[in-house]
Amino acid sequence: MSQVSIPNVKIAVIDGDLLVRDFVSTVLMYCVNRDVLSFDNGMAAWRYLEGADSPDIIISEVDVSGLNGFELLAKFKEKHPAKKCLLMSANPDDEKVARDSGADAFLAKPVSVTDLFRVVEAFVV
Amino acid sequence: MLRVGPSSGEIKNMSDEDIFSSRLKLLIIMAKSYLIGCPIGKYRKQAIIENSRWVFYHSLHLVNKMVSFKDQDLKAQAGIAFTDDMHEEHIFYQRIQLLAVMAKALAEGRLKGYFREKALKENLNRICEALIFNFNVKDVKFLKVA
């Protein structure tokens, strides 16, 4: 696992569940003291992610409408290979697929505050 | 690949209770960080206010649910008030609401003075005792910079 430091980090959260999306965004906003982007489906996220002002880190639920998490991971890594893509899931079978697909992290649900702190420690500071 | 979260056998979708519990723990961390002097920047302030509001309104909803259960019990069992457990639970949710108000005040720079900070510490301690939540904020280095 690489230890990196990203100044003025830009993060996007993609999850169809509003409660989870808002929770993850709030924790990350507090941790990094930066605004955090959020999207409720993969297609809306991709329209933004393919632009020049793309986030440094995306955290996407696997089971999301439009483009699912694995499709988003493949497109994002193809366009921005150096940037980080983290996948969240409530399905244990998704962990191996995430690993094989080149995800930088797998967040098993339910995600806790301390899990998100570990993510920030690993990828941001 | 970094892997965080519960083991494979415990993976599940996040329920409303999971979210409430996680947001409450986040609120505790936010308040504890303030008490040890961690800086509050623009977006941290926004995150504290958002989280305080969320926890306040959802704990209010939980209290209302308890009261409606109590009323049904009273109708059925005339004259029987809260059991000790229900009373404790009621107080616990009141303490959570107080913590939410205090956290919003600290984010807005209104929680000033020795006794207000003492009240915040005492309230935090009581809530943490009930939750059995013992998180050491001093171990989180990134909270010390804004």
Q: Can you summarize this structure?
A:
Chain A has 125 residues and is of the alpha/beta class. Chain A has 5 helices and 5 strands.
Topology pattern of chain B, helix = H, strand = E: EHHHH
Order of helices and strands of chain A: EHEHEHEHEH
What is the 3D shape of chain A? globular
Overall pLDDT of chain A, averaged?
Answer: 94
Enumerate the spans of chain B where pLDDT stays under 50 for 5 or more consecutive residues.
74-82
Mean model confidence by pLDDT of chain B: 87
Unreliable runs of chain A, pLDDT <50, ≥5 residues?
none
How far from one another are the termini of chain A?
Answer: 13 Å
Which architecture name of chain A does CATH use? Answer: 3-Layer(aba) Sandwich
Query: Pairing-aware structural class of the strands and helices of chain A?
Result: alpha/beta
**What quaternary form is this?**
heterodimer
Please tell me the total number of domains of chain A.
1
Care to count the β-strands of chain B?
1
The share of residues in extended strands of chain A comes to 15-25%
Share of residues in helices of chain B: 55-70%
> How helix-rich are the residues of chain A, as a percent range?
40-55%
The CATH superfamily of chain A is known as Response regulator
Q: Strand count, sense and closure of the main sheet of chain A?
A: 5 strands, parallel
Q: Explain this structure to me?
A:
The complex is a heterodimer of chains A (125) and B (146). Chain A has 125 residues and is α/β, with parallel strands linked by helices. Chain A contains five helices and five strands. In chain A, helix 1 (18-32) packs across helix 5 and helix 2 packs parallel to helix 3. The mean pLDDT of chain A is 94. Chain B has 146 residues and is mainly α. Helices cover 66% and strands 2% of the residues of chain B. Chain B is built from four helices and one strand. Chain B has helices at residues 16-35, 42-76, 84-107, 114-131, and one strand at residues 2-4. Residues 74-82 of chain B have low confidence and may be disordered. Chains A and B meet through helix 1, helix 4, strand 5 and helix 5 of A and strand 1, helix 1 and helix 2 of B.
